[in-house]
């Protein structure tokens, strides 16, 4: 990586010109840095004369959200581009196309999705996406099944696992999701009005036991190649299209972690309706839409996953009657637990979500925060008893009305 340097907007244009067969020789190009995530630079390059455009995504050697004091491997750009290419082979309509990867610059050249919006923003604006559950359920089923010992040659899976050892990014998750929220850690960012709720969680040993069990799964259960950070800021959407982006946290981990990420972010928006819905009826209507989506995501995932298993299962022993049901029951339980853990960290951990932080009315924001913590901790506590996705919906409703 000796030639590495972070690009300026002008250098991004120069780089874009060097990509063969993309833009017309000598034509005018415009460049804008549009990255609003926690880690990377993102340049939007356009050629006004033809309307062509691309995205250049460049990893920085530190975590942008904290600054240069938090160094971060550039290898995450390789992991991201390789994961995107695997995902594209499995679900071509659900990820952006990667044109090129430049390892020296930790740079990925990919399809521009500016006709989509970041789903988190779409949900804050209270839009509905009727195809989302089918799309993301299929994405989860295909990526998780075909990279696991259920659907991939098991020797090749071990080799692929080696290419996705991602220790630094995994450590971020291990700390920010499975440790720091459960103690008075310096990285936590706690609004004073909910400090009492955080302190209660720090003393809740029953909860800590469940978090320890989930943390162990995150550390040791190499079930499938995960996206690793599948929140609604990692999804571009429009009514007829869903595109999953940003798999730089990809590694071999427990399947329920990816499913839980999707459900957690729908439920964070559910809690955030305290601050976004103008009146009680519209709040209930949008919340019902979100809960139905939670249920549909799991249902589409399960239906697709079981069908893939029945048709493409590679392991004779795993066809043993009863084993598929056992596996799915355990995966549902993991999903409950990871959903809860991913909610709690977003309320007073290091990195929050705009759905809640951008609520201007402090009282409404506090109600949303407490509701998200109540739902999240309840799901963590209940995870090993879960039997059906309907229970998750019932628990969310119950915790939103107390
Ligand atoms: C230091 S990175 C903070 C968070 O941003 C990413 O999107 C991940 O969710 C990570 O935990
Ligand atoms: Mg990201």
UniProtKB/TrEMBL annotation:
<keyword id="KW-0028">Amino-acid biosynthesis</keyword>
<feature type="binding site">
    <location>
        <position position="345"/>
    </location>
    <ligand>
        <name>substrate</name>
    </ligand>
</feature>
<keyword id="KW-0418">Kinase</keyword>
<dbReference type="InterPro" id="IPR009212">
    <property type="entry name" value="Methylthioribose_kinase"/>
</dbReference>
<feature type="domain" description="Aminoglycoside phosphotransferase">
    <location>
        <begin position="32"/>
        <end position="265"/>
    </location>
</feature>
<feature type="binding site">
    <location>
        <position position="57"/>
    </location>
    <ligand>
        <name>ATP</name>
    </ligand>
</feature>
<feature type="binding site">
    <location>
        <begin position="111"/>
        <end position="113"/>
    </location>
    <ligand>
        <name>ATP</name>
    </ligand>
</feature>
<feature type="binding site">
    <location>
        <position position="40"/>
    </location>
    <ligand>
        <name>ATP</name>
    </ligand>
</feature>
<keyword id="KW-0808">Transferase</keyword>
<keyword id="KW-0067">ATP-binding</keyword>
<comment type="similarity">
    <text>Belongs to the methylthioribose kinase family.</text>
</comment>
<feature type="binding site">
    <location>
        <position position="229"/>
    </location>
    <ligand>
        <name>substrate</name>
    </ligand>
</feature>
<keyword id="KW-0547">Nucleotide-binding</keyword>
<dbReference type="InterPro" id="IPR011009">
    <property type="entry name" value="Kinase-like_dom_sf"/>
</dbReference>
<feature type="binding site">
    <location>
        <begin position="246"/>
        <end position="248"/>
    </location>
    <ligand>
        <name>ATP</name>
    </ligand>
</feature>
<comment type="subunit">
    <text>Homodimer.</text>
</comment>
<comment type="pathway">
    <text>Amino-acid biosynthesis; L-methionine biosynthesis via salvage pathway; S-methyl-5-thio-alpha-D-ribose 1-phosphate from S-methyl-5'-thioadenosine (hydrolase route): step 2/2.</text>
</comment>
<dbReference type="GO" id="GO:0046522">
    <property type="term" value="F:S-methyl-5-thioribose kinase activity"/>
</dbReference>
<dbReference type="InterPro" id="IPR002575">
    <property type="entry name" value="Aminoglycoside_PTrfase"/>
</dbReference>
<protein>
    <recommendedName>
        <fullName>Methylthioribose kinase</fullName>
        <ecNumber>2.7.1.100</ecNumber>
    </recommendedName>
</protein>
<dbReference type="Pfam" id="PF01636">
    <property type="entry name" value="APH"/>
</dbReference>
<comment type="function">
    <text>Catalyzes the phosphorylation of methylthioribose into methylthioribose-1-phosphate.</text>
</comment>
<keyword id="KW-0486">Methionine biosynthesis</keyword>
């Amino acid at each position: 990586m000796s030639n590495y340097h972070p690009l300026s907007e002008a250098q991004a244009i120069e780089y874009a010109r060097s990509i063969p067969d993309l833009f017309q020789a000598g034509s005018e190009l415009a460049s804008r840095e549009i990255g609003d995530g926690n880690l990377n630079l993102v340049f939007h390059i356009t050629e006004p004369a033809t309307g062509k455009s691309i995205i250049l995504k460049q990893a920085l050697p530190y975590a942008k959200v904290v600054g240069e004091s938090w160094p971060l491997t550039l290898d995450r750009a390789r992991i991201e581009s390789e994961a995107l290419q695997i995902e594209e082979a499995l679900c071509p309509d659900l990820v952006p196309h990667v044109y090129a990867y430049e390892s020296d610059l930790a740079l990925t050249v990919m399809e521009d999705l500016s006709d989509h919006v970041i789903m988190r923003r779409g949900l804050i604006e209270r839009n509905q996406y009727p195809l989302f559950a089918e799309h993301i359920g299929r994405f989860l089923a295909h990526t998780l099944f075909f990279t696991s010992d259920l659907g991939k040659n098991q020797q090749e899976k071990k080799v692929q696992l080696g290419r996705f050892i991602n220790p630094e990014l995994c450590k971020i998750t291990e700390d920010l999701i499975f440790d720091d929220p459960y103690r008075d850690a310096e990285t936590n960012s706690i609004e004073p009005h909910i400090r009492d709720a955080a302190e209660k969680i720090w003393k809740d040993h029953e909860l800590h036991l469940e978090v320890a069990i989930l943390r162990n799964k995150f550390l040791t259960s190499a079930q499938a190649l995960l996206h690793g950070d599948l929140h609604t800021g990692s999804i571009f959407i429009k009514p007829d299209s869903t595109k999953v982006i940003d798999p730089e946290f990809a590694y071999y981990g427990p399947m329920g972690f990816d499913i839980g990420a999707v459900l957690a972010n729908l439920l964070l928006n559910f809690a955030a309706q305290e601050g976004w819905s103008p009146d009680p009826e519209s709040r209930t209507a949008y919340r019902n839409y979100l809960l139905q989506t939670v249920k549909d995501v799991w249902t589409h995932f399960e239906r697709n996953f079981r069908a893939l298993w029945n048709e493409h299962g590679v392991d004779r022993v795993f066809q043993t009657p009863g084993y598929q049901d056992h596996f799915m029951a355990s995966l549902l339980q993991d999903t409950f637990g990871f959903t809860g853990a991913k909610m709690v960290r977003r309320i007073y951990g290091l990195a929050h979500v705009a759905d809640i932080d951008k609520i201007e009315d402090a009282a409404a924001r506090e109600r949303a925060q407490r509701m998200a913590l109540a739902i999240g901790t309840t799901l963590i506590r209940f995870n090993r008893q879960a039997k059906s996705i309907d229970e998750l919906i019932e628990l969310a409703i119950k915790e939103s009305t107390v």
